[in-house]
Amino acid sequence: MRRTGDGQGGTPVGTRWAAVLAIVGAGVVAALQVGKVIIAAPLLRRDMGLDLAAVGSLTAVFSVLGMVGGIAAGGVIARFGARRMLLLGLAATALGTAAGAAAPGYGALLASRVLEGLGFLMITVAGPAALQRLVTPARRDLAFALWSCYMPGGMAVAMLASQAFADWHAYWWCAGAAALLALACVALLAPPSAAGASLSWRGLRQDTIDTLGTAGPVLLSLTFMLYSLMFFALFSFLPVLLMERLGLSLAQAGLYSAIATVANVIGNLGAGMLLARGWRRSTLIAIACASMALIALLIFRSGAPAMTIFLLCVAFSAVGGLIPATLLGSAPLLAPRPALAAASVGLVMQGSNLGQVIGPVTVGAVIDRHGWPSAAWVVVAAGAGGLLIAWGLRRLGRRASHAARL
Prior knowledge:
16 helices; 79% helix; 406 residues
């Protein structure tokens, strides 16, 4: 008999893999809503006459909401239960997607993206909290490695699915149907979760202070910020880079970008296996940051043949995947107390979203001013920062006894 307490309850007797896969699927569907705008941008510009800034705003809504609301979402999830908030997030995603498909103009479409963004925030913070109570300690790193595949998996699905649509409205309707399917799977397979303590502004403020005052979650959040900066510094402009360097069409660039994005899954799963074998988390972070910095130098400054550049992008994505699985699996373990596991995940996700905001903006400005080769130095600087944080995590592990094996 498996224990089905809430995320702050006891240790599960066994791992509920069907429920784990349902929750991972919910994350993939959430990430699909991010990727659909990126790949449908030409269709949106054609039908609505939007400029690039307007299209960028449709994507940035998700990052801005995540950047400011991560810890608060964690507090709400701790109060109402991870499963409930996961279901609510999927419902909001489906409703927002349907509203977007029926939007008569840009204003209504942007408003629908806010609703989708709230759903995305609830899903991405509630997902790890829900997983925490479904897996045994021996399987935790593998389960979180699977969860960390949600973003590259969802982005790749969005890019590949775009090949089947000539109209963005149909794309939106299908994305909403996917959210409803994910909602049904979670409702059927994930066990109920008990509610926590009552929610109050005073309690939420104290939870925020406690989370921000703990070194572990803060260092993890900073690491995710730097990783997202590095990853999206390249992948936000990858279709453009491939079209310019390889002479690909938009559809071909989308397919190649999907291949490079899927490579990130290899790193995520690899991190889960390495952590299960006893590798230190700080070691994996250091290896990934150093490798991404070196590969970025080769991509942007080597003058290598076009196909070599593409293969380097695949390698960049794969080795970078070591970081999300490591961070998301560590966040609940480094929380100030078990009840703040969701808040710690929320803080880590805030770092991720901050990197997604500043990465493309910074690199885009650098490329406009100094050309493509200069983008390498942004990634190198972020990689160096990641190495310093990995050293800080190693020192933190030496000062205290952590189950996370820093």
